[in-house]
Amino acid sequence: MQKTAGIHHITAFVNDAQRTTDFYTGVLGLRLVKKTINFDRPEVYHLYFGNESGEPGTVITFFPWEKQLKGRIGTGQVGVTSYMIPIGAMDFWKNRLETFGVKFSLSERFGENYLQFQDPDGLELELVERNHGSINCWSVNGIQPEIAVKGFGGATLISAKPNKTAEVLEHVLGLRFLGQENGFLRFQSEGQFGNIIDIKLTPSVRGLMGAGTVHHIAWRAKDEVDHQRWRALLQKEGFYPTEILDRNYFKAIYFHEEGGILFEIATDPPGFTVDEPLHELGHKLMLPSWFESKREELEALASS
Known about the structure:
By secondary structure, the protein is an alpha+beta fold.
């Protein structure tokens, strides 16, 4: 059976590029691993934040556009994005959020404690202590590797048809069902990052795309051969995946599951060092070869 290792990346809408960069690098201590453009709307930046190398399962990406309206988190979306921190790091993060004036709350789910808060655009985030997943060696702004955000812990999905979404996770993507508790279903993949997925069962309002909401969640494919197998499987299962699209740092296919959530399957390779060395990641605007001739125009548009 085909099995994804877990989340590859999560992509969301925000209003302000600099405010988003300040929060994810300055508060959460992630690395800006790539500054590029939205290949489908090249006048808009596409920012990627992750661990030191932008490893699959650690990267959240954003389309910042000041003119977009505020969104509404609800059905057909990722409701909450979870990040893993090392065991014993929770008190540090409570203090850090307080220092930066970020309001938070505490909750428990499936025997784990969560520190929940929002980013400046209202995107729902949470931190959870877990042993697995390698340490993030990116040290910045008083955050040392032993307490740094490691990568995704997982995500909570808000589906219009929770049981249909559950079927996709278990019987198409190959995640293992762990149980049900207090209005949530829980599934687990085999990867070290982004491997715990919860589905909310209680009713929710219909989601509206806009600033502060997730556009899509991407799942991992090992390589291009595996990626082609995923596309064939989706077609066999009655879904309508897109053609394979070249996103420069990975190949991508997209499809909607019956609960209304946009899923992507993305290849692990080639990764973010395909066009700039590891030590220079995120320093300048990177363009795919087919847009390079329009660099001057795109730099002016993206910065305006």
